[in-house]
Amino acid sequence: MDFLPLDIQKYVEAHSDQESEILNALNRDTHRKVLKPRMLSGHLQGRTLAMISHMIQPKCILEIGTYTGYSAICMAEGLAEGGKLITIDVNEELEGLTRSYFEKAGISQEVDYRIGNALELVPEVTETLDLVFIDADKKNYINYYNLVIDKVRPGGFIIADNVLWSGKVVAQLKKTDKETQAILDFNRLVQEEERVENVLLPIRDGLMTIRKK
Prior knowledge:
Layout: H1 6-14, H2 21-33, H3 42-56, E1 60-64, H4 70-76, E2 84-89, H5 95-104, E3 111-115, H6 118-121, E4 129-134, H7 141-148, E5 152-161, H8 178-192, E6 196-201, E7 207-212
Parallel strand pairs: 1-2, 1-4, 2-3, 4-5
Antiparallel strand pairs: 5-7, 6-7
Helix pairs in contact: 3-4
């Protein structure tokens, strides 16, 4: 999922802030204990999310797709005083590991961790959102976008992960699978959306960064 040459990737990471000890431990534990550890945001993307959060200083963040909590911990770094992060995941089996790292990171009081179907839980969010991170099932990216866009304040941001989909978005495939098509449809929707400004950042597997006008 990394599109930079390996030597450039290593140079970029060497000249970016390093993971905290907590994030490094979570990275290791995810790779040791959890299936599909590549779903973890990881060092460079994590620092990018943290930097964006610091820039925005959000009062309320919504994350769709918690996994083991790495990206949530990164984004929580930039929360305004008294702010909170709502994070939703369907996999209850990861709850123990994830909550333990929220505790270790000292953000348990700021995090509202909800287990369930995001299509059902997002409509229950009544807060005005400053930052949304979408990193869940790809076939529902457009649905998630439509659910959150009216909840995001003008000037707020939506970031969607995996929008390069391991390069499949530009691969000359005889037949496009459903997940790739969903990403292509999402990227096209955002590009044609008049209510937002957007830039696709080729970081890791692609971050579609969207600012609501």
